[in-house]
Amino acid sequence: MCGIIGYAGGESDDTVLERLLNGLSNLEYRGYDSAGIAVANAPLAVEKREGELVELERALAADGAAFNGSRGSDDWIGSDAADSFDGPTGIGHTRWSTHGPPSDVNAHPHTSPNGSVAVVHNGIIENYRELREELSADGYEFRSDTDTEVVPHLIDRERSGGADRFAAFRAAIDRLEGSYAIAAVFPGHETIYVARHESPLVLGLGENGNFLASDVPAFIEYTNQVVYLDDGEFAAVSPSSVTVSDESGAVVEKSVETIDWDPEDAGKSGYDHYMRKEITEQPRAIRDCLRGRIEELGGTVSLPELEGLEEPSAVQFVACGTSYHAGLFGERLLQRQGIPAQTFVASEYDADQLPVDEETLVVGVTQSGETADTMRALRGANRAGATTLALTNVVASSAARECDHVLYIRAGPEISVAATKSFASQQVTLSLLATALADTADPSSSASREHLRELRRLPDHIQSVLDDSNARSVVEAFLEADAYFFIGRGYSAPVALEGALKLKEITYRHAEGFPAGELKHGPLALVTEATPVFAIVSGREKTSATIGNVTEVQARGAPVVAVTDSPATVGSHVDYVLEVPETHPAVMPIVANVQLQLVAYWLADALDRPIDKPRNLAKSVTVL
Ligand code: F6R
Question: Is 619 a catalytic residue?
Answer without folding.
Answer: yes
